[in-house]
Design goal:
The protein is mainly alpha-helical. It is built from eleven helices and two strands, in the order H-H-E-H-H-E-H-H-H-H-H-H-H.
């Protein structure tokens, strides 16, 4: 019997609107990003400055010989840059894991304090202690991020779907494998790409930032097919390998539409972050920005799940039958 149900490709605006409607009708979802941002803002700070700053200065002094008369200025500039960066960094930010994690406004925010006074500061001075903290924070962040993703996926699926602990734990394990694969790929590609980029800049300095732009476009073209890898894990409960394959198939089938969709999400999310970070860190008005960021980020993620759901249904029921018909005609 022929199936007369027609599946259309996912549409951009309806997916985005549907994502925000899903979050608005389940507003408790934003408690995850709100809570983690409040913790980063008002909670303690775990610093690694006393461990990393001497290492960075020592590395700068070793390489300063190549700068000749400007060696002292190079070391001074390196010290200032790393001092500013490490003063703003807290190891607790590691709880914001990628690609699966809870979105945070405060991770990229230059914070100098908070409305309730000077936060408690914990200084870590041992490399082994830092690695221990980092491992625990990454595990906690990945677990919370998995719960957050699973919750949004369940909302998009509809009222007949409910979460269970064993399912979330399995998805967390798959999330760990996905993060490990992406981290390994980035680590393997980072060194040769940086060497290639440095060589091009040294040989042809007149090109300016053009090589960086070209490599950036290539990186986007390579990584975009993996954009829906987390969605298969949480929406269809796939293993990481199968989820990556489905993501590549979906993006390759709808390359231009998917690229436009993610550009719209990035502009929406990061564009509004400029508004949310307008208040200073010692003003309670920043709490409004945290809530706004939580709603927008959750809505954007829900929209991506809706787009994925529509795209997979279209891919399974429209693309595959056409291939089967073509095979029958050839035979």
């Amino acid at each position: 019997m022929k199936n007369d149900v027609k599946y259309d490709p996912p549409r951009l605006i309806p997916s985005i609107v549907g994502g925000f409607n899903a979050v608005a009708s389940h507003i408790y979802i934003i408690l995850f990003p709100v809570s983690i941002d409040l913790f980063f803002w008002l909670g303690p700070k775990v610093r690694v400055k006393n461990y990393f700053l001497p290492l960075m200065i020592e590395a700068a002094e070793i390489s300063s010989a190549a700068y000749g008369a400007q060696a002292a200025d190079f070391v001074k500039g390196t010290r200032e840059i790393w001092t500013i960066m490490l003063d703003q960094f807290s190891l607790l930010f590691s709880m914001r894991t990628f690609p699966i994690g809870i979105p945070s406004l405060m991770v990229g925010y230059m914070s100098s304090g908070n409305p309730i006074g000077t936060p408690i500061t914990i200084d870590l001075k041992s490399g082994n202690v830092i690695m221990g903290w980092l491992f625990v924070l990454l595990v906690v962040g990945l677990l919370l991020g998995s719960i957050y993703f699973a919750l949004i996926a369940s909302v998009v699926k509809g009222p007949g779907y409910s979460l269970n602990v064993s399912q979330v734990l399995k998805q967390t394990v798959q999330s760990f494998f996905l993060s490990a694969i992406i981290l390994s790929a980035v680590s393997l590609l980072a060194l040769p790409i940086s060497c290639l980029l440095s060589s091009i800049v040294l040989v042809m300095p007149s090109l300016g930032n053009f090589p960086i732009m070209v490599l950036g476009l290539i990186a986007v073209w390579i990584t975009l097919p993996l954009a829906f890898s987390p969605h298969g894990i949480f929406f269809e409960e796939l293993r990481v390998g199968k989820s990556i394959v489905m993501s590549v198939r979906l993006v390759r089938s709808l390359m231009s539409a998917t690229g436009t969709f993610f550009i719209m999400l990035i502009i929406l999310g990061y564009g509004l972050d400029i508004l949310w970070t307008t208040p200073t860190s010692d003003s309670w008005m920043l709490a409004i920005g945290i809530v706004g960021h939580a709603f927008i980020s959750s809505g954007v993620l829900a929209a991506s799940f809706i787009y994925y759901d529509k795209g997979i249904k279209w891919l399974k029921h429209s693309v595959q039958p056409k291939k089967q018909e073509g095979t029958m005609v050839v035979s």
